[in-house]
Amino acid sequence: MRFYLKKAAAEHCDLLFKWSNDKEVRENSFTKDAIKYDVHVRWFNDKLNSPNCDIFIFYLDNMPVGQARIDVENHEAVISYSIDNNYRGRGLSTEMIGLLEKNVDTNVNKLIGYVKFSNVISQRVFEKLGYTKELNNNYIKYSKII
Hints:
Blueprint: E1 3-7, H1 13-20, H2 23-28, H3 37-48, E2 53-60, E3 63-73, E4 76-83, H4 92-103, E5 110-115, H5 120-128, E6 132-135, E7 140-145
Parallel strand pairs: 4-5
Antiparallel strand pairs: 1-2, 2-3, 3-4, 5-7, 6-7
């Protein structure tokens, strides 16, 4: 199996819209409401054109199976990610975030993930990759110096 990341482009807009409105993705998100298409398109274009954001599509043997996004501020990058529902349960999130760590801009020195207490799978991903765990009132903050 061959895994790789590719920077998102305009043609990925609809795919990311589909993934972002997946039932499980919405449940694990801090914003549970379904996303309207026009709102998504505006958001997607803003992110693609932002110098402080990178969106990557994760491929397994030339098939897009997930996405990872980093939003950078003050040399820290906040990670958001999801895996296509047809590919969950295979350990791909760990592979994807591991690759993401190697593709982060050199001006980033810390990666951060915010995870809900109910999202045990994402907790395992960050812990397996050696992120430091910090409990907060409504979420867990994972961080890693790179």
